[in-house]
Amino acid sequence: MASGKYREEELIDGLVVDNEGYICGYVSNFGVEPDRITLNLYEYDVQRVETLNEEELVKRILDFIPQKTGFFNRKPKGKSGIEDVYDRVRTRLSLPETDTLTFEHMVEYAKAESIDIPYEMQELKEKVDKGSIDWSSIDKIAFTDLGKCLLLKEAVAATKKAASQNEEIGYKSSKDLAGRIVLDSEAKIIGTAVTFLVGNPPGILVNIERAMRIERPDPEALKSELIPTSYTDLKQLYDQVKKDQNVRTVTDDDLISWARKYNLNVPTKVEERRETTRELPLNWNTIAKIGDVIILKKDIETLIEEDNKANAKNLNRVPSSPRR
Q1: What are phi and psi of 96, to 5 degrees?
Q2: CA pair distance 297, 164, nearest whole angstrom
Q3: From the CB of residue 45, how many other CB atoms can be counted at a distance below 10 Å?
Q4: Closest CA to 32 of 132, 106, 173, 143
Q5: CA separation (Å) from 279 to 51, 190, 193, 284, 289?
Q6: Alpha-carbon span 123 to 46, nearest angstrom
Q7: What is the tens place of the pLDDT at every residue in 186-226?
Q8: Distances (CA, A) of 245 to 23, 64, 76, 239, 305
Q9: pLDDT, mean of residues 288-308
Q10: In what helix (H) or strand (E) does residue 240 lie, and over which residues does it extend?
Q11: How far apart are CA 210 and CA 276, in angstroms?
């Protein structure tokens, strides 16, 4: 069993992997009974759905308007393209100035003008229950900035999937390997597999990664906070920003600067970026298991130390004398 004591919230959303490298799910919460502790799991049910491409719809309407207006119906002087769109949508649909414009109105306008409605495929994630496992099933727990992982003692998911549990790891192509999460022997998430390495012995190339989390202003969330509580619609908000900032058109940066100038709350969002800190070539016999993820036989510190020694040895190698 994993040693150490943890607050429940420390392990929530942790990746749970069985000892064959197959993902069991993610930690949802805990069940505490007099004689046992269980981890309740979830997974994401991903569905691809067709949704309106709002940005492309506005672009198509903007492209359509100049062709429709002609010389004597050009947009009013000083108005931005998006403001002209709002005016024409209101006029075409006979909407009063007090009504908040929605993308449903944009779609209605596009249909009235025979503009093709653009759609795109998006992935929607929904959490679904994946059952539970006993706390006693956990072998190792590890944390890195790439996430937290709980490695099990048993082949829980592999058994359910009827996956092969061979001791010998057969070679896999680069296509099969690329993008798989890589765990070291201590269950630390260290990066992703890149490609198969041909050689004697063959191997695998792994990207050692780190996650960078950057907090940035969220202009869309700011608009949602201000509309319709403080401003009727985006046009009215932009008119105010133009007046206060003395600009002809409003960008997201203008909106953020304006909000900060008047001490308004500016919502933020955290963007996570992964960057590769090192490419680590490993011999194939370093791999312990390949399932949904790849589990290695050694910890990352040992693997890096061995690679550093190998690189130093290659640098110090004296080149052979050329034949005469």
Answers
A1: -70, 155
A2: 19
A3: 10
A4: 132
A5: 38, 11, 10, 15, 20
A6: 6
A7: 999 999 999 999 999 999 999 999 998 889 999 989 998 99
A8: 52, 30, 21, 10, 56
A9: 95
A10: helix 234-245
A11: 7
| pLDDT reported for residue 71 | 38
Are 130 and 41 spatial neighbours (Cβ–Cβ below 8 Å)?
yes
- 66: number of Cβ within 10 Å: 13
Checking if the pLDDT of 324 tops 80, the result is no
Beta-strand runs (E) in the chain: 15-17, 23-33, 36-52, 119-134, 138-144, 147-152, 181-183, 189-197, 203-217, 268-283, 287-290, 294-296
For the chain, counts of helices (H) and of strands (E)? 10, 12
Rg (CA), the chain: 28
Residues 180, 192 contacting (CB under 8 angstroms)? yes
Mean pLDDT of 240-266: 90
Contact call for residues 161 and 23 (beta carbons, < 8 A): no
CA distance 31 to 7: 13
Backbone angles phi, psi at 77, to 5 degrees: -60, 135
- Cis before residue 76, ω within 30 degrees of 0? no
Q: What is the rounded CA–CA span in Å between residue 285 and residue 297?
A: 8
Domains and CATH numbers, the chain: 1-47+124-165 (2.30.30.240), 54-117 (no CATH), 219-266 (no CATH)
Q: Which DSSP helix (H) or strand (E) runs through 91?
A: helix 81-93
Structure confidence at residue 39 (pLDDT): 94
Lowest mean pLDDT among 96-105, 218-227, 291-300: 96-105
The one-letter amino acid at 9: E
CA–CA distance from 219 to each of 52, 138, 212, 257 (Å)? 21, 43, 21, 11
CB atoms within 10 A of CB 85: 21
Which amino acid makes up residue 73?
N
What letter would DSSP give residue 181? E
- Token reading at 245: 């900032």
Question: Do the Cβ atoms of 122 and 48 come closer than 8 Å?
Answer: yes
